[in-house]
Amino acid sequence: AALVAGFIAALSTYAVQSITYQHPIKGAMCAATLRSSAWNRSGEAQKILLDKKKGRERILVIQCQGHIFFGNSTILKESVLELLVEKRRSGDDPIVVILDFTHVLAIDSSSAMTIEKLKDSIIKSFGVEVVIFVCGHEDGFRCHYDLSLKVNGGAANKREGSSKRLLDPIDIGEEDPIMFETCKEPIHPNTSRAQARASVTARALDVSNSHSGYKNAVMADIPNSHVCETLDDALIFAEDVLVAVQDAMILQNDVDDRFRSNILEGSGMAVKCSKTQQSSLEEISRAFLTSLCTGADANEIDKIYRLLEPEMYYYNDIVWAQGEESKSLKLIVDGSLLSLLEDEDGARESCYPGSIVGELGLLNGTRRLTTLKVVSDKAVLYSLSQEQWELLACEDPKVARFID
């Protein structure tokens, strides 16, 4: 009996010593090198984002991992606050903090409440403008507690007593506010509005119109917290905040330049567009091509444009599936899409107007590496087929080089 008892005790000791403790925080870094997919920002916006005192270096990204439960949620909270204390001591106080839960497997209810309180501590104790939570899944956080609702910046979560405006009220008309959307429901791609205003999350802006048409507007208020599905969406939102804090009009102009088609009144289009709409789409497409094809003259842009065929897609449409043959590339002109890795949970990337997708597969003859899905009400893509690409490469290699 003593031998058996000794064996069990030794086995138990070995098992306990073999347990590897996993810290709830995987790592933390500033976002100086974590640029979002909104790469085609205006020059003024880029200048702000590249500034060491005003730009991406003022975004702190903290990545969490594993299971968050009552045993390590306090460690998570204390570790985050310690990181912020260190930032303050070094004079690098962040303007935006991103808490990324993409690699978190589960969160229990008590820990979810601790995370909710952590948000308040970050804002009140460290003066952070916005705390952004990345849930990593379209259904929200992996917990029974409604954490997505609790930490999303609704009206109740605006800064207490804040009358801060990014421009003096005298500079704008009362009917002209433009604000970050503060949804009270968890983020979900199936929204009734044309999400393409211009992204699945951060780019949904409430644009006011008047009898004279679209007017310059100002972002008057910023929610102190926000929930995003992906890290890319969070980075876009954070970049918007940085630009807006410095000059709201620069952000407004930046949105106008990149998403002009989505801001137009009645952006949802019928399958057969009117001549006015076709003219607008052509203008926007040419502008995108000019931005993408650096150094191309007007004739070369015109040659590429005439090879493109407009296509209309609707919410939940699959443009192509992972593993399919690559027979075209697409220029996104209007709408929002999601690129998904089918065999990796949570591996996804948002795609926005002004982006080209599918060029790698077309040029290299490889199969599609991801599934491309529409997540806005409608999407307009301009497609370059394999046949047209081969024709262009053969007849005018110089112009073809702008694409590859």
TrEMBL record:
Residues 292-377 form the Cyclic nucleotide-binding domain. InterPro entries: cNMP-bd_dom, cNMP-bd_dom_sf, Membrane-Transporter-like, RmlC-like_jellyroll, STAS_dom, STAS_dom_sf. Residues 59-132 form the STAS domain. It comes from the Eukaryota. Residues 1-18 form the signal peptide. This is Cyclic nucleotide-binding domain-containing protein. Pfam families: cNMP_binding (PF00027), STAS (PF01740). PROSITE patterns: CNMP_BINDING_3, STAS. It comes from Skeletonema marinoi. Keywords: Signal.
